[in-house]
Amino acid sequence: MNDLAGTTMLITGASSGIGPATATALAQRGTELVLPARDPARGAAAVA
C-alpha cells in the first residue's frame, strides 16, 4: 500500500455504509482524517 502520511482527508458518511471501512483503510496508511457527523453518538463510534 502507498504511504499517505502527511495527508489529511475529509470523509463524509464515515459512520455508516462503506465509510467506516474507507476511514479504517486510510488511517492504516497514515492519513489524518476529518470525520464530520450529524449524530454525535455515531460520530464517536466511528472514531473508536
Brief overview:
With 48 residues, this protein is an alpha+beta fold.
Features:
48 residues, alpha+beta, 2 helices, 2 strands, 38% helix
Describe the structure.
The protein is an alpha+beta fold. Helix content is 38%, strand content 12%. The chain is built from two helices and two strands; from the N terminus they run βαβα. The chain has a two-stranded parallel ribbon with strand order 1-2. Strand 1, helix 1 and strand 2 form a beta-alpha-beta unit. The longest helix is centred in the middle third of the chain and has 10 residues, at 19-28. The protein is elongated, with a radius of gyration of 10 Å. The model has no long low-confidence stretch (mean pLDDT 89).
| Global structural class | alpha+beta
Which parts are unreliable, with pLDDT below 50 for 5 consecutive residues or more? none
Series of H and E elements: EHEH
Number of alpha- plus pi-helical segments: 2
Please compute the radius of gyration using only Cα atoms.
10 Å
State the helicity in percent bands: 25-40%
- First-to-last CA distance: 23 Å
Helix and strand layout, with pairings?
Blueprint: E1 8-10, H1 19-28, E2 32-34, H2 40-47
Parallel strand pairs: 1-2
